[in-house]
C-alpha cells in the first residue's frame, strides 16, 4: 500500500500543473479582464461586460492598447495598470512566477479586496465546510436506510414510487430546488418559515448556547436541504444496487439455508460487504457537495462562503483569488482521491491496490 500511495502522491504534481496550465491558458483569451474592469469603473460605465458585447463599437472607438473597456483613457494609465497587475510580462513568465509562489503556498493578495488570498480563503472556508459536511451527513442518514429498504423490497410498489421520487430529485438542479424552497418557505409567495439569507441572525452573539444552536439550525435548514438533493439520490441508488448485488451471492443463500433470520443475514453478513463502496466514498461525496453545490447554493442564499467568493472573483476577474482557490481545491481533490482509496482498504483489508496496479 505504501508504494501505491507514493505513486499517487507523485502523480499529484503533473496533474496539478496540467490543471493550472489549462485554466491559465483559457484566461488569456477571456475578454473583460481586470484592466477592463477597472477602466470601466473609472469611466463610470459599470463593468467591463457592458463593453465586451460590442454595443456601439465602431472604427473610431478610441480603444487604448487593445482594451475594449479603455476608451478615452490615456495610454500612461493603462501602462501603469499593466505594470501593477504584472501584465507587462510575457504569459509564460507570469505563469512560472505564479507556480513558483504557489509551491510555498504564497497566493498573493486579492486585486479588488486588499487582503491576502490565504486569509480570504480561511475567512470563507467555515461556511462552505459547514454546508458540505451537514449536507453529506444528511444524505447518508437518508440514503442508507432508504437504499437498504428498497433492496429488500425490490420490485414492490414501495420500490417503484420511491424510485420515481429519486429520479425526480436527481433531475432537479440544486439551484432550481433552492429557488423553489425559497419561494415556498422563505416568504417568496407562500410561507415565511425560514430566513432568506445568511447562516446566523444579527443578534447571534447575544444568544445563549441553546439559542445559538437553534438560530444556526433555523438558518442552515434550507441551504443544507437544497445541496443534499442530488447526492441523496445518487447514494440511495448506490446503496440499493450494492445490497442487491450482495444479496444474490452464494454466501447469502448458504446463510439462509442454515436457518439464519433475515435480519441476521442482512446486517450480519451482507451489510459490511455492501456498504464498502458507500462508506469508502464518503470523502469524495463530501468533496462533490463542497465544490459542486456550494457556488450556486451560497449565491442563492447569500452565504459568505468559498462558492460565493469564487463566483464574485470570476465576475471581477480577480485572478489571484481564482487561481489561488483553484490550486487549493485541485490539490484537495487529488488528496481526497487518495484518502478514498485508503478508506476502501480500511473498511476491507482484503483490497490490495498494489497487486492491481501491478
Furnish the topology, listing elements before pairings.
Layout: H1 2-27, H2 34-42, H3 75-85, H4 91-103, H5 117-152, H6 157-171, H7 174-185, H8 209-247, H9 250-257, H10 262-274, H11 276-280, H12 282-300, H13 306-316, H14 319-347, H15 353-357
Helix pairs in contact: 1-14, 5-8, 5-12, 5-14, 6-8, 7-8, 7-12, 8-10, 8-12, 9-10, 12-13, 12-14, 13-14
Describe what this molecule looks like in 3D.
The protein is mostly helical and 358 residues long. Helices cover 70% and strands 0% of the residues. It is built from 15 helices and no strands. It is globular and about 90 Å long. The N and C termini lie close together (12 Å).
* Total discrete domains: 2
Shape: globular
Tell me the CATH superfamily of the largest domain. Answer: MetI-like
**Share of helix among residues?**
over 70%
Brief summary:
The protein has 358 residues and is an all-alpha fold. It contains 15 helices and no strands.
Key descriptive features of the protein:
single chain, mainly alpha, MetI-like fold, 0% strand
Amino acid at each position: 500500500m505504501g508504494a501505491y500511495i507514493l505513486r499517487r502522491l507523485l502523480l499529484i504534481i503533473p496533474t496539478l500543473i496540467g490543471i493550472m496550465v489549462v485554466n491559465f491558458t483559457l484566461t488569456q483569451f477571456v475578454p473583460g479582464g481586470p484592466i477592463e474592469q477597472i477602466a470601466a469603473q473609472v469611466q463610470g460605465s459599470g463593468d467591463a461586460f457592458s463593453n465586451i458585447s460590442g454595443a456601439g463599437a465602431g472604427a473610431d472607438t478610441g480603444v487604448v492598447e487593445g482594451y475594449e473597456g479603455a476608451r478615452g483613457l490615456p495610454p500612461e494609465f493603462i501602462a501603469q495598470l499593466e505594470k501593477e497587475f504584472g501584465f507587462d510580462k510575457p504569459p509564460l513568465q507570469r505563469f512560472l512566477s505564479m507556480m513558483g509562489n504557489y509551491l510555498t503556498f504564497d497566493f498573493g493578495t486579492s486585486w479588488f479586496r486588499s487582503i491576502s488570498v490565504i486569509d480570504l480563503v480561511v475567512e470563507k472556508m467555515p461556511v462552505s465546510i459547514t454546508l458540505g459536511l451537514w449536507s453529506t451527513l444528511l444524505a447518508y442518514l437518508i440514503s442508507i436506510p432508504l437504499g437498504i429498504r428498497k433492496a429488500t423490497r425490490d420490485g414492490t410498489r414501495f420500490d417503484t414510487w420511491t424510485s420515481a421520487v429519486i429520479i425526480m430529485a436527481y433531475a432537479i438542479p440544486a439551484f432550481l430546488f433552492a429557488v423553489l424552497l425559497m419561494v415556498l418557505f422563505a416568504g417568496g409567495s407562500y410561507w415565511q418559515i425560514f430566513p432568506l439569507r445568511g447562516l446566523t441572525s444579527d443578534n447571534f452573539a447575544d444568544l445563549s448556547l441553546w439559542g445559538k444552536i437553534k438560530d444556526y439550525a433555523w438558518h442552515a435548514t434550507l441551504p443544507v436541504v437544497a445541496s443534499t438533493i442530488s447526492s441523496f439520490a445518487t447514494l440511495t441508488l448506490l446503496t440499493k444496487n450494492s445490497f442487491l448485488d450482495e444479496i444474490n451471492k452464494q454466501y447469502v443463500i448458504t446463510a439462509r439455508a442454515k436457518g439464519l433470520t433475515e435480519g441476521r443475514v442482512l446486517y450480519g453478513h451482507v451489510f459490511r460487504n455492501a456498504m464498502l463502496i458507500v462508506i469508502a466514498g464518503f470523502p469524495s461525496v463530501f468533496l462533490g457537495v463542497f465544490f459542486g453545490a456550494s457556488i450556486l447554493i451560497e449565491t442563492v442564499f447569500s452565504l459568505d462562503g468559498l462558492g460565493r467568493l469564487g463566483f464574485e472573483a470570476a465576475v471581477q476577474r480577480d485572478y489571484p483569488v481564482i487561481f489561488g482557490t483553484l490550486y487549493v481545491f485541485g490539490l484537495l481533490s487529488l488528496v481526497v482521491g487518495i484518502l478514498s482509496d485508503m478508506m476502501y482498504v480500511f473498511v476491507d483489508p482484503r483490497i490490495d491496490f498494489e497487486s492491481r496496479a501491478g
